[in-house]
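Q: What residues go here?
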């Protein structure tokens, strides 16, 4: 069942481990099949280097295991995030180093750089989901509420969550949040711990694709 999606989950989980975003079996990856609503999720406590597609678990929306062994202990958190954000089909949870440092300090990351405008941020800020015990309904609620405000979320005293319309986008966002945390760390270090000039939500709303760029009538290729 859902073999292609499971393979994709495995590829992304291995990529996250090799990139250093998920070390020591930490983190988990899931993807929702839009047709059935089933969620493919990494198994609990399996090193991604040895992870295979047949170990990926399939869950229904009520947390019933349809296929596979022992799903991630954070399965409820993933399911609640899908319910909170019907526009997403993939989630990557990491314990990546620099982003986790800000998460441990309960320090939201403000919009210090313009590229943050693409992440559906409320108040132009990467928010922190309040700490709750891992694996619990309380944590699932805390993260699901926060993911309504942003595609990138810090989890207090825990790690990060990145969501996307598909697995590649969720992975890219997980990579991004770590990179942004690094840049923010350097800014604070170079600036005596002070925030730099910060963008507002209004600044972000002003961006549009430049209308000076026009297509020739005989231009071929994708029409996006
Ligand atoms: P699982 O291996 O159960 O997914 O847990 C890993 C983790 O990082 C929990 O936050």
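A:
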């Amino acid at each position: 069942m859902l073999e292609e999606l499971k393979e994709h989950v495995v590829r992304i989980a291995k990529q996250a481990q090799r990139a250093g975003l998920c070390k020591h079996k930490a983190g988990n990856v899931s993807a929702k099949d839009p047709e059935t609503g089933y969620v493919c999720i990494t198994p609990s406590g399996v090193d991604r280097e040895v992870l295979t597609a047949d170990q990926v678990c399939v869950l229904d929306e009520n947390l019933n295991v349809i296929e596979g062994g022992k799903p991630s202990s954070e399965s409820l958190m993933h399911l609640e995030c899908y319910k909170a954000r019907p526009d997403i089909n993939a989630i990557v949870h990491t314990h990546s180093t620099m982003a986790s440092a800000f998460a441990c300090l309960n320090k939201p990351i403000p919009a210090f750089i313009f590229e943050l405008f693409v992440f559906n941020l409320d108040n132009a800020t990467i928010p922190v989901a309040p700490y709750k015990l891992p694996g619990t309904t309380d944590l699932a609620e805390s993260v699901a509420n926060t993911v309504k405000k942003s595609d990138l979320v810090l989890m207090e005293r825990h790690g990060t969550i990145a969501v996307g319309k598909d697995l590649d986008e969720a992975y890219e966002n997980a990579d991004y949040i770590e990179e942004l945390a690094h840049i923010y760390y350097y800014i604070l270090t170079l600036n005596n711990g002070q925030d730099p000039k910060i963008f507002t939500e209004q600044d972000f709303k002003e961006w549009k694709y430049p209308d000076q760029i026009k297509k020739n009538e005989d231009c071929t290729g994708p029409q996006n």
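A: Context that may help when evaluating the design: The longest helix spans residues 167-190. The mean pLDDT is 96.
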